[in-house]
Design brief:
The chain has 186 residues and is of the alpha+beta class. It is built from 5 helices and 9 strands; from the N terminus they run ααβββαβββββααβ. The strands form 3 sheets. The chain has a 4-stranded antiparallel beta sheet with strand order 1-7-2-5. It has a 3-stranded antiparallel beta sheet with strand order 4-3-6, with no helix packed on it.
């Protein structure tokens, strides 16, 4: 997602309440390192059940329970009611071995829960919780912005990221820059 208006607004990344919650979940040394926007249109279908950022920290022990080192923050740019295709999440599946979690959801042992959002609502979730997008049955595109925050020591190249234009970077305070881990474009 580009760092140019109207897509980018600093308050997306620097809301003090959201930042406080994310820092409380991990620690004060967090950085935003990826962001994007899902926009299903009328006629979209259910996404496959999936997790985000599928690379475990220790690939040799993929289901090892670890303290939180990555969190995903999402919010709608429009109200997201049931007809707009809200995200559905299988609660608790981030704490289960992935194969067991998938079997539990597919067998109906864990129910998917829709998460409608009003403007101003924020969804903070673990990226390894099984989830999916649902069909948008309205004429309004459903825009859901998602930002990944990680502990400063964690880095991966699991997705391509957009560079921040130098003029945008220079407009940020030193504190704001310290929270951003994106390449800078001259």
């Amino acid at each position: 997602m580009p760092f140019d208006p109207p897509c980018f607004a600093p308050q997306f990344f620097f809301d003090p309440d959201v930042r406080s919650i994310v820092q409380g979940l991990m620690d004060d040394r967090i950085v935003a390192d990826q962001w994007g926007c899902d926009v299903p249109l009328r006629g979209s279908e259910y996404q496959e059940l999936h997790v985000d950022y599928q690379r475990p920290l220790f690939p040799e022990v993929p289901d090892l329970a670890l303290p939180l080192y990555v969190v995903v923050v999402s919010f709608g740019l429009v109200p997201i009611a049931l007809g707009h295709g809200p995200i559905e999440i299988a609660p608790g599946t981030h704490r289960m071995p992935r194969a067991d979690a998938r079997r539990a959801v597919e067998a109906g042992g864990i129910a998917m829960q829709s998460v409608p959002l009003e403007i101003g609502d924020v969804l903070i979730r673990h990226p390894w919780a099984l989830h999916r997008g649902t069909p948008n049955t309205t004429d309004m595109p459903r825009a859901l912005v998602t930002i990944r925050y990680v502990r400063r020591w964690y880095a991966d190249d699991s997705r391509d990221v957009e560079a921040v234009p130098r003029r945008v970077w220079d407009s940020l305070t030193a504190d704001q820059q310290s929270v951003m881990r994106f390449p800078i474009r001259e």
